């Protein structure tokens, strides 16, 4: 959703001038946040502000890009715009509440009506802020929702290891090992790629989707980086017979993981 035009004391993109707060984040580690908004100016400024405040920040211009990031990254909070080019923000919020209940959600919108605020808060959002806003307020609100999440019973960002064709994939320790404990050595990008496939088993993932998931940038027809990365991962997986033919090429579409995946 496009932000309101700049007014007195405001910057373009819905931000007002303000020095970033220096309060420590409540997780005992760097907080990982996705900002989802199709206003590229606002997106860039929020990313700069969050990184300046000590967060690890990922920018997404659509729900699809957000999903691609979630497939690879462990995320603590999402700043989610209501009006996205490919989805309704409230519907995305409901979906996130079911699939990622431990992620804090702060709704971001230019709509100031009380009905919209109630829809967001009653629908599962942890907080709601309207444009234009002061950067310090957004950082303070985000800090507050993360503190509530951290203080909640059974909170945490631990992930359940997955079993892929008999091998164990641990997203926390970033290890892929066979039943005998022998580890398949993967680079960071190769591991990110495998995680993306494991969280979307038997689903065709396009090069554009994979490019954003792994490299946080759009894919172009002349870009062969994903094909090269898939080739490298295939070569590594030949060390593990159950997965030697697991990555299937879907002509003109992308790639698919054909091996069975279970969690827990």
Quick overview:
The chain is α/β, with parallel strands linked by helices and 264 residues long. The protein has 8 helices and 14 strands. The chain has helices spanning 40-52, 63-70, 89-99, 114-122, 135-151, 188-198, 207-215, 225-237; strands at residues 15-16, 32-36, 56-60, 77-81, 104-109, 127-130, 133-134, 162-164, 167-170, 175-177, 205-206, 247-250, 254-257, 261-263.
Characteristic key phrases:
single chain, 264 residues, alpha/beta, Rossmann fold, Arc Repressor Mutant, subunit A, 4-stranded antiparallel sheet, 8 helices, 34% helix, globular, disordered N terminus
Describe this structure in words.
This protein is α/β, with parallel strands linked by helices. The chain folds into 2 domains: 15-151, Rossmann fold; 162-263, Winged helix-like DNA-binding domain superfamily/Winged helix DNA-binding domain (Arc Repressor Mutant, subunit A), CATH 1.10.10. The chain has 8 helices and 14 strands. The strands form 4 sheets. It has a 5-stranded parallel sheet with strand order 3-2-4-5-6, sandwiched between helices. It has a 4-stranded antiparallel sheet with strand order 10-9-8-14, covered by helices on one side. Helix 6 (188-198) packs across helix 8. It is globular. Residues 1-23 and 154-158 have low confidence and may be disordered.
């Amino acid at each position: 959703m496009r932000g309101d035009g700049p007014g007195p004391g405001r910057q373009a993109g819905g931000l007002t001038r303000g020095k970033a707060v220096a309060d420590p984040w409540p997780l005992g580690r760097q907080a990982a946040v996705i900002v989802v908004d199709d206003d590229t100016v606002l997106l860039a400024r929020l990313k700069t502000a969050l990184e300046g405040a000590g967060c690890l920040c990922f920018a997404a211009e659509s729900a699809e890009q957000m999903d691609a990031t979630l497939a690879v990254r462990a995320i603590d909070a999402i700043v989610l715009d209501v009006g996205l080019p490919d989805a309704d923000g409230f519907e995305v919020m409901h979906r996130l509440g079911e699939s990622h209940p431990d992620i804090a959600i702060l709704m971001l919108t230019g709509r100031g009506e009380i009905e919209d605020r109630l829809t967001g808060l009653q629908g599962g959002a942890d907080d709601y802020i309207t444009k234009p806003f002061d950067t310090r307020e957004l950082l303070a609100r985000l800090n507050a929702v993360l503190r509530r999440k951290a203080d909640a019973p059974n909170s945490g960002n631990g992930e359940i290891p997955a079993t892929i064709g008999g091998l164990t994939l641990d997203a926390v320790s970033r290890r892929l090992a066979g039943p005998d404990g022998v580890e398949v050595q993967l680079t960071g990008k190769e591991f990110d790629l495998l995680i993306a496939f494991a969280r979307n088993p038997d689903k065709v993932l396009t090069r554009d989707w994979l490019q954003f998931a792994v490299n946080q940038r759009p894919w172009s027809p002349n870009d062969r980086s994903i094909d090269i990365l898939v080739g490298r991962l295939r070569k590594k997986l030949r060390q593990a017979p159950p997965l030697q033919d697991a990555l299937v090429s879907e002509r003109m579409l992308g790639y698919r993981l054909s091996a069975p995946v279970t969690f827990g």
